[in-house]
Design a protein that fits this description.
Blueprint lengths: L1 H10 L3 H17 L4 H17 L9 E2 L5 E2 L10 H23 L6 H4 L9 E3 L11 E3 L7 H12 L1 H6 L9 H5 L1 H6 L11 H4 L9 H14 L1 H6 L9 H5 L1 H6 L11 H4 L3 H17 L6 E2 L1 H4 L8 H7 L7 E2 H24 L12
Antiparallel strand pairs: 1-2, 3-4, 5-6
């Protein structure tokens, strides 16, 4: 029964409309199950619009003096009744909505009368209603300090390689900047040797320092900076030409939240890693007497190693008798993590006391 009523509505359309759209409208009706009431309303409105819209036949071509056809460029136009009716209905509805908002308080429709005071908007206070004192004071919202952004600003400013990658200077490596990283890195190759040294990436050392300290400073610089660490895939202290070509996938490995870009928190150095590297440097400086970047069995038994002997022995995971700087750094990070977990457990149990510093 309902289908016959819908077909009857389709038949009320003009013949040209039925030839073009009748089959499509009926097919849509047969496929719809839960919203056929809307289809009846739409078909009735379509019938009204089609019969109220008066389409004039095209104007005939006029012949010019030389016999060539001349067409009328400006055709007479009349607004369709359906357009005027729909426009009138919408206008009346909006007027009723505004009248309701004005009589029932401004909080009903704050977007219509500009009374919204959310974050980021200007707050207007002390508005004078007197004719002689039309003064308005605008209070700018205070910008909250962002410690991560402040640290990122200082970090990006101090690292030459990051300044080269961050082309727009917004402290974020966008997907486009990550994609164009190889060309940005090649611009840092000032000596044109096809690779980037620590100095070309931003490392500086004071003149007159011991070369062993300078070499260790280069290694620390390339290790503690996350961007440099992933770019220097083989950890030889330089970014080779091949590593520059593969810079894009290397940088994407730092994208922890997989949003296609690197935020400040994803490129800032890990404080625990920096602390462990500096502490391991102090241990090797005190114990490594021959300067081979490793602590031998003889050196660990010396009186100078008494304070650090437990850490040195525990760090020798492969038990080859030589404790390297990398092994000491890993052991220190492991102990720091264990200490943090213990403090968290004590806080949960309500037995937290003063924080203990690791003893060396």
């Amino acid at each position: 029964m309902l289908r016959r009523c819908y077909i009857w509505l389709i038949c009320q359309h003009p013949p040209e409309f039925r030839r073009r759209f009748a089959a499509e409208m009926l097919g849509i009706y047969d496929q719809m199950h839960g919203r056929r009431g809307w289809l009846f309303f739409d078909a009735a409105r379509s019938v009204l619009r089609q019969h109220l819209t008066q389409q004039r036949p095209p104007e005939p071509a006029l012949a010019s003096a030389d016999g060539a056809p001349r067409f009328q460029t400006i055709a007479p136009y009349s607004l369709a009744w359906s357009t005027m009716m729909e426009g009138g209905i919408i206008t009346v509805a909006l007027l009723c909505l505004l009248a309701y908002a004005g009589t029932h308080g401004s909080r009903r429709l704050p977007f219509l009368i500009g009374s919204y005071h959310g974050p980021g908007f200007l707050h207007v206070t002390d508005v004078s209603n007197t004719a002689s004192g039309l003064d308005t004071r605008v209070v700018m919202p205070e910008e909250k300090a962002d410690p991560i952004r402040d640290a990122a600003r200082a970090y990006f400013g101090s690292l030459l390689l990051l300044r080269a990658l961050d082309a727009d200077g917004n402290l974020v490596l966008s997907s486009w900047e990550i994609l164009t990283a190889p060309s940005a890195l090649r611009k840092l190759d000032t000596n044109r040797d096809g690779q980037l040294s620590a100095e070309e990436c931003g490392f500086t050392a004071s003149t007159g320092l011991d070369q062993r300290l300078v070499a260790y400073g280069r290694e620390t610089f390339m290790t503690t900076n996350p961007v440099l660490r992933v770019l220097d895939a083989d950890h030889d202290g330089t970014i080779s030409g091949t590593e520059m070509l593969t810079a894009t996938p290397s940088l994407r490995s730092l994208d922890r939240n997989v949003d296609g870009k690197l935020s400040a928190s994803e490129v800032l150095p890990d404080p625990d890693l920096v602390w462990a590297v500096l502490e391991s440097a102090a241990i090797l400086e005190a114990v490594d007497t021959d300067g081979d970047a490793g602590i031998t069995a003889t050196e660990r038994l010396s009186p100078r190693a008494a304070r650090y002997r437990e850490i040195i022995v525990a760090a020798d995971r492969d038990h080859n008798g030589i404790t390297t700087r990398t092994e000491v750094t890993a052991e220190l990070r492991l102990r720091r993590e264990r200490q943090r977990q213990q403090e968290a457990a004590e806080q949960v149990l309500g037995n937290s006391g003063p924080t203990k510093q690791p003893s060396f």
